[in-house]
Amino acid sequence: MTDELRPGQAEMSRLTTTLRIAGESASVVSMQAGYHRQAVWRGPDPVANGDPRLQVDFSSGSALLYADRAQRQQVGERLGNTLRLWSQEYRIHRQWLWPKLLFTVTVGERTVLRVRERFGRNGGARVFDTHSDATLDPVVTLALLLLEGRPHKMGLGRGDTSP
User: Which DSSP symbol is given to 125?
Assistant: First the structure.
């Protein structure tokens, strides 16, 4: 990892995803917001923060991203390994997908995010070590994790029989 990337950690389960970045007191939280949808809030308490900042919608077959307002304004989409979000283009490079997720994200020639999944002690959660550019919005970081981590396809844990 390079010095310009800041370390962080994310823990993902089907119901909640939290990203905390070292040196920052704020966290970013994502929770399910309907069938195959994840809403992302900036801050640890979604109830106190009002409307989510972003909604990732997996239900159409390709991921679409919306500013979660009444108008549901589309602010991004994923096409293959390219994510366009708020007028910025991110390129996702997968090094490994199974059994652990490992990927980097670039903007032009510059790496802005590196993610490595490691197995947590708890069977119901996935843990990711992240290294992100200091200028990368934590909401974007979490959106990129959601797109690759695919929480909408995860089961609720052992013994769960629901789809």
Answer: -
**What 3-state class would DSSP assign to 48?**
helix
Kindly state the tokens that stand for 38.
């994840």
Whether residue 127 is predicted with pLDDT greater than 90 in this model: the reply is no
Closest alpha carbon to 8 in 149, 131, 163: 131
User: What dihedral do alpha carbons 96, 97, 100, 101 form, nearest 10°?
Assistant: 80
Rounded Cα–Cα distance for residues 93 and 2 (Å): 17
Sign of the CA dihedral running 42, 48, 54, 56: positive
Question: In degrees rounded to 5, what are phi and psi of residue 96?
Answer: -160, 140
Closest C-alpha to 126, from 13, 15, 7, 8:
13
* Terminal-to-terminal C-alpha distance of the chain: 38
Quick one: tokens of 146? 């959601």
Work out the widest C-alpha separation in the chain, in whole angstroms: 45
For residue 163, what are the CA distances in angstroms to 36, 73, 150, 155, 160? Answer: 11, 29, 14, 7, 8
Residue-wise pLDDT tens digits, 42-65: 877 777 778 889 999 998 878 899
Helix (H) or strand (E) holding 46: helix 46-49
